[in-house]
Amino acid sequence: MGSNSRIRKEDPEENKQRTQKALQSINPAVYREASPDTWTHSFAAILVPLCTVKGEPSLLFTLRSTRLKKHRGQVSFPGGNVDETDADITFTALRETQEELGIDPARCEVWGQLRALPTSMSKRRVVQPVVARITGGDLDLNQLKVNHDEVEQAFTVPLRQLCNHANIGVTRFRNDTNPFTMPVYTGPPHRIWGFTAIVTHILLTVLAPNLYTFKVVHKKALSGRHHQHGHSIKGRGS
Fold first, then answer.
1. What does R_g of the chain's alpha carbons equal in angstroms?
2. Is the domain covering 3-29+41-234 a CATH 2.60.40.740 domain?
3. Contact status, residue 85 vs residue 95, Cβ threshold 8 Å
4. Segment Disordered: which positions (predicted)?
5. Which of 24, 73, 128, 172 is most buried when burial is the number of CB atoms within 10 A of its CB?
6. Rounded distance, CA 86 to CA 171, Å?
7. Going by C-beta distance under 8 Å and a sequence separation of 6 or more, which residues neighbour residue 235?
8. Which of 112, 232, 100 shows the shortest CA–CA distance to 172?
């Protein structure tokens, strides 16, 4: 039986409860231990939105606007910096999603949080992924109120496509101190890499452990100088 059929036939409520239980075992971000003026890190939150499109379980992504100064034109999840007035990290993720895509927080059924991750080698910026399901039936991208100052395009990718090894590779970054390997989802419609790919990989291992079997294995360079850049390699799921 193909992965698409297995995803469709899995009981939604059972999958929700299993995923929530797994998320509860993850240690979330510890932030706001002191007043904002004494924070040693910059904190942000993203929403990792599960949805259905024509009855098919999918993930919702955004393509960042080319008007932005940083990371423009890259694939991301909706999100942004924690404001001092935000009630908590979940509020931040929901607020930013509403600002970027016009999705009412009331439609977002929050399932839990993935572990917080730094966005750079300096670890000065920490991002907390919040997992939620968009309720109210199939998601219609045409009904979203996209803020084009921040988002070029909103798009979805079926979970079956993300779980298919034929659509996954790795990018190996080499430097003098800490070489590392990251997954890459080759699309369509857009190549998903970097921080967004890491979050996607972690989510899929929790959400669909029997379907998503891709493993990210780091292999040291055999020869040559180390460079501070990455190159893509097609993965084999081992």
1. 18
2. no
3. no
4. 1-23
5. 128
6. 35
7. 165, 168, 169, 170, 183, 184, 214, 216
8. 232
The dihedral sign for the CA sequence 110, 111, 113, 114: negative
Start-end of H helices in the chain:
3-9, 12-24, 89-101, 159-163, 194-207
Contact between residue 22 and residue 163 where contact means Cβ atoms under 8 Å apart: no
The number of residues in the chain equals 238
- What is the rounded CA–CA span in Å between residue 126 and residue 191? 23
Joined together, the tokens standing for residue 171 give 């990018």
Q: What is the full DSSP assignment across 27-75?
A: ------SS-GGG-SSEEEEEEEEEEEETTEEEEEEEEE-TTSSSSTT-E
Angle, vertex CA 99, rays to CA 196 and CA 57, nearest 5? 50
Domain spans in the chain, listed from the N-terminal domain onward = 3-29+41-234
Q: What's the rounded mean pLDDT across residues 104-133?
A: 87
What's the rounded Cα separation, in Å, for the pair 53 and 47? Answer: 18
pLDDT digits (tens, 9 = 90+) for 195-215: 999 999 999 999 999 899 998
Instruction: Tell me the pLDDT band of 71, cut-offs 50, 70 and 90.
Output: low
Q: Find, among 190, 188, 231, 212, the residue nearest to 76 by Cα.
A: 190
Token digits of residue 8: 């469709």
